Amino acid sequence: MKGQAYITGVGMSEVAVRQTRHPLLLTLDAVREALDEAGLTIGQIDGVSTYPGRMPAYLGFSPVGADELIDALGIRARWYAGGGEISSQLGAVVAAATAVRAGLARHVICFRTVYEAAAMARPDEYPPLRRDRVDGASQWTAPFGAISAANWTAQYAMRHVSKYGLTREQLAQVALTDRAHAALNPRALVREPLTMEQYLSARMISTPLCLYDCDRFTDASTVLIVSSGDALDEVRCTPVRIAAMAGSVERHSWDQAEWMACYPTGAELWKHTDYTPADVDTVQLYDGFAFYPITWLEALGFCGVGEGGRFIEGGKRIALDGELPLNTFGGQIGAGRLHGFGFAHESVVQLRGKGGERQIPGDPKVAVATSGGGPLATALLLARD
């Protein structure tokens, strides 16, 4: 369909920890897989988009930039972008979709490469981020011992505990569901199921979040190819349309914003489409911490604000055979921290019916993929027309 943007090829490298394969080579592995699925050649690619671009001061977090990929593959890019000051990880897909809709490119490689586990294992090659003084945004959190996103997220989770009655047993359903689905995913980092007893006995990280509520560092690359509707005659796969997209930053601060950015983002998404939450067959919701999918379910209108815990209680509703399957590849808690891009990748896999053992029943046609927590958020509504 002209004037529209589609995800065509998707690709993923090996997902592991402490990889020795160079992160650029992992990226090339994922690119090759995506090109092969789409039936495209590198000569047809004329755009590249990534988040957040190469970060020399923190290479484990982002070791590969758009310019490196362009040079490595000899891409003749008419448009490219890479930066962290966007609405979150999948904001790179929003940028690519906007570019192809505007006619600035026909086929754009979008990628996110992470190398944090390997970087921690090889600090001489990938020096950790160190500061001699506390400044910037950290001056408002670090002096109080809030040095991790787990601490920052926990304050929002505790509001749900105190104001809406969220219980640990309800919160556990995200981690238990992720791990159950990861067991069916051959690429998942952790394939052992998790029991409620194990969850409740795990050490606390930042109340109410325990060890199993946190995602885990991974070394991997994920690629999505965003194509113009005018160029679909060049691809051989089933295209998945980006039916709507939204992103927001209420205030770029973890300790001052009243609500996490997913809430305005979720409401905004439905303003750009005729689809409604009732049309959605699966949700792939960012789970850097298990609390995030609960807020996304509320923000997207699947339940009321404060009702997320009760919505997923018992786990049946979000199971593979439930009414709203969640994170069918295992999410970042089970499959590994692909840092946002894994949710869009899995949405496409499910809408194409290629999930294998983890394929949801029926004929799914509509999915929501999200990224971000705290002050940043992006949502994509994907449809197989």
UniProtKB/TrEMBL annotation:
One of its GO terms (molecular function) is acyltransferase activity. It comes from the Bacteria. Pfam families: Thiolase_C_1 (PF22691). InterPro entries: Thiolase-like (IPR016039), Thiolase_C_2 (IPR055140). Keywords: Transferase. Residues 264-379 form the Thiolase C-terminal domain. PANTHER family: ACETYL-COA C-ACETYLTRANSFERASE, NON-SPECIFIC LIPID-TRANSFER PROTEIN-LIKE 2. This is Acetyl-CoA acetyltransferase.
